[in-house]
Amino acid sequence: MSDKLVMAVNAGSSSLKYKLYRLEGLEVVCGGLVDRIGHEDGIFKLTYNGETTKEVLPIMDHHKGVELILNALTSKGIVKDKNDIVAIGHRVVQGGKYFSKSALFDADTEKKIADLTPLDPLHAPAHLMGFHAFKEAVPEAVAVAVFDTAYHQTMEEEDYLFPIPYELSEKYDCRRYGAHGTSHRYLAEKAIAAYLGGHKGTRIITCHLGSGSSLAAIRTPLGGVMMGTRSGDLDPSVSYYLSEQMGLSSAEVYDLLNKKSGFLGVSGLSNDTRDVEEGYFKGDRRCITASNLFARRVADYIGQYFVRLGGVDLIVFSAGIGENSPFYRKLVLDRVKEALGIVIDEKKNEKAFGGKEELISAPDSPVKVAVIPTDEEKMIASDAVKAYEGKL
Ligand code: AMP
To answer: Does the reported pTM lie above 0.85?
Structure first.
């Protein structure tokens, strides 16, 4: 077997997630996380052969993080030589109008990502830092940018435009781009192969429900459900009203809607749905409200997409909540089952968690419902392999 390896990287402003695969067959070798970058008590984690090691040490920048990863890989004998890593795929959240598929991370791609910073000030600079740190450490490896928005670029104008003055949409590229596209792409490919007999052109709704959530009607994705700490869709006058009432700047209201809303804001307890679910069963009124509000919004999107697709063949649940919580899946499905005629196999739903893939609809259900664990890293690694083989 060849020793060639591929790395999937997800660089944030203070964190760096990585997963290493064998090029052949994309078998996972190891993975981990560098966290609290920029701090004296930075965290470096590595999981290999089912064992996780953790170190706490100063990690002042992304370069240090990458150095730690590569040194650990070679010193533990996981990798013979860092240059065995022949391709590196970098997750990039915002590809704007420029990218409808993954791209070689060259000077042009770098410039475009930098130009897109106003659309994604949080992630774009971090992605570039991650890219440079790896480029410096493993200069020979083929680098690829894999964009969350790329899969959504086939949206039609009537789906991506906001009803704001048209010239502003054009001038500022202010439009809908879609989220978690790499996950939706993975889920759709997997679902088509596993549950729809390989037929393309079927109608799928994928529900990526995690700390960030998005649904996609395949070929017509939208964002906007309530999330861990984010409000999701709102009447725009809410921002104005709150800023007037509370004497806050628009940046402060934006912060409130991003970081203190969603499950956390409504429940007053936690952004983690495990806590909110527990509160629900203890009868906590606000946990009940937060859960119902979330389920209602996801259900409304499913309804909207059902109409947009002219029906649906398969609904997929994925990510932290979608993969692990029979309770939230049921809360959502109870709100759509009558209209869509869905019949759920309750026992299968109860058993589907912890990384299991499962068809949870009954055989006589006209719409199939599946739980599919997502794997964005594998998608990123697979695009990196394609780039290495010149097939991107
Ligand atoms: P993700 O962003 O996909 O990693 O999802 C993380 C979120 O999934 C957590 O913040 C929780 O809200 C949720 N989650 C994870 N495990 C469970 C579980 N067993 N039950 C309910 N929610 C869960």
So the answer is: yes
